[in-house]
Structure formats: C-alpha cells, structure tokens
Amino acid sequence: xxxxxxLASVGPWSPGLVPALLVGVAAVLALPFRLVWAGWAVLALAxxxxxxxxxxxxxxxxxxxxxxxxxxxAIVSSVSVAADISWGNYFRLGGVFAAAVMxxxxxxxxxxxxxxxxxxxxxxxxxxxxxxxxxxxxxxxGYLLLPFYFISSGVWENWPAVHEWHEVARLFVGVNVVxxxxxxxxxxxxxxxxxxxxxxxxxxxLQAMVFIPFLWELGYQAWGPALTIPFAxxxxxxxxxxxxxxxxxxxxxxxxxxxxxxxxxxxxxxxxPIFLL
Length: 277
Description:
Elements: H1 17-30, H2 36-56, H3 62-76, H4 87-111, H5 129-153, H6 165-195, H7 200-218, H8 225-242, H9 245-267
Helix pairs in contact: 1-2, 1-3, 1-7, 2-3, 3-4, 3-6, 4-6, 5-9, 6-7, 6-9, 7-8, 8-9
C-alpha cells in the first residue's frame, strides 16, 4: 500500500496541471451548466492525459488520483444538486452523495492500493486558542455577511419554501448533511489527492475550482463566489494546518447554521427575528 509522503511531487508549473485544470473545466460544464456529457468527456480527457504523463515518467501516479477524483465528480454530476427537499430528491441525493464519497475511497484503497483518501476526524487536539478564536470570527462574519448576501441578491429563492415544521426539519438536516459531505469529498478526497502532486496553493486552487461550481448549482449564485471562493480556500488551508476533519466540519456547519436561519427567516419573515435584514 502506498503511504503518504512517499510519492514524488509533480512540482509547480508541470504538465500535471493540465489534467487537473481540465477536471475544473469539467466541473463547470457538468454542474452549473448541466452539460453533463460534455463534462464527462472532458473528465475522460483529463484521465487519459494524466495516465499518459505517468507513462512518460513526467508524473507519478497522477493518473490514478485523477481517476479517483473524476469518478467522484462524475457520480455527483449525474443528478442535479439544486436545492430540493422533496422526499424523493432527499433520498436520491443522499444515495448519490454517499456513492461519491465511498466509491472513490474504495477505488483508491482497494483497486489502487493507496491510503491517501482518509477521514482524520480528530487531528491535532486540543484545539488552540487561535482555532477557537477563528470559530468566533466565523459566527460573527456569518451573521453579518450571509443575511445581506442572501436577501439583497435574492438567492434565498433558490432554496425551497419551508413553512411546515417537517419542511424546516428536512431543510436543517439537508443543509448539515451537504455541508459535511462537502468536506468529505472536496477536502478529504479532492484536496488531499492534489496535495500529493502540487504545491499547497495550487492544490487549494484546484480543489476550489471543483468546489465552487458545485456551490453555484446548489444555489450560491449572483455574487456568491465573492464569498464561496474565499471560503473554499480557507477550508483547504484549515485542513492542511489541522488535519482535523472535525474542525473543518465544525467551521462549515456554523456557516450553514446561519444559512439555514436566513432561509427560514426569508421564507417566513419574523420567525427567526435575530437578523438585521
């Protein structure tokens, strides 16, 4: 089994960036534009180029890692991830999200005999004062920025109407499940595999190129990328520093808690009277 740190890095500005960038292009085509077959064709091209570079000796195991990422992305893009909490979509997306994490994990671990895709829950413990302080910043920033973004841009309408208690409950569970899944796939899988081949800033940018199209289709549209791009990059940086899935999930779900509150507030004015807008 291949252990982390034993593989040669591709290095900056190497040909290995070509297939990785193509994965980002495929994400844009397959997710927000819903040109699924075009996206899958670009994914296939990325996989083929990565294996070819390995064969030439220009990269090491990049073909296997791009294959793992491409399979997960293909699974995710097989259905629309636009916010929808109907019972049928609830379970359909649940199955797709589960497959998009488990299939790449099993492919990497058992077919390619690799252990780079892992889910280190605790990481460095206890959390430092700086980490706790950042959590406080997340809460304050989310409270100040997210209501303004959702309500001023009108993107709250991208989420379904929730009026009955069971609709609110499904929205709450759905928001938290998707937030947790984001870290399992985009950070623990995509980012972790890219880190083995590229410098930190490149790996982080490459994972954000896959993460942001997903968030756009989910509903973070209008000027949402001004918030989601820094968020995606910060999540990668935090995971790199802490190696703690628990910490990045905590940060993500705190943001999502505010998102949930804003959606309910926008759909039912006065229900959660804690926001300034």
